[in-house]
Amino acid sequence: MNKELFDRIIACVWKTIEEGGDVDNIDHLAERCNLDKSILQKLFPTSEKIVLVLIEDIWQKLSLPPKSDKLTPRDQIFDAVMMVFDLITPYRLGLKKLTHNLLLSPTTYFEIAPRLNRFGSDLVKHYYNNEGIFALAIPLAFNTAFGAAFWTFLDDDTFDLSKTMASLDASLKTVTSLLSYCPGTGKFE
Q1: pTM of the prediction?
Q2: Mean pLDDT, to the nearest integer, of 97-124?
Q3: Do residues 80 and 173 both lie within one domain?
Q4: Are residues 112 and 164 in the same domain?
């Protein structure tokens, strides 16, 4: 598949999500994108594959600021996660629908969780590098914080995502507190 067609399909999927359309229904998506159903079935054999492609698209669009000595790693991670939420805010209602539909699928966790974990791990490693014994635990702890904030984000009806920010801040404080008991994890605050 050429890049132009792929980009057109991804733009159509995002537009469908933005409008609250049903992106996990290939027939509906093919009609919305004005494409042959077989093209979409090949690209998205499962609903989970749609989400994986969207996660990759978000990562490609995300422009993380460089690491700063003026901010703590925790503050930089907070800002980076909020950048992700700002990027996907126009699609929140559609993402909520898609997320709830996917939770009904028993294979969802096994297909999506590894990529979501890698997304969070890559984001954490951008601002904090730990090669110690807790190198695997730290990204998992932060991914838990991101997950808690994501659920808040889906229902956040504030114009400035203040509920999401409060949830993320509280979750990151919990992670930071837990990490203070782990030798060799460095300083987050």
Answers
A1: 0.85
A2: 81
A3: yes
A4: yes
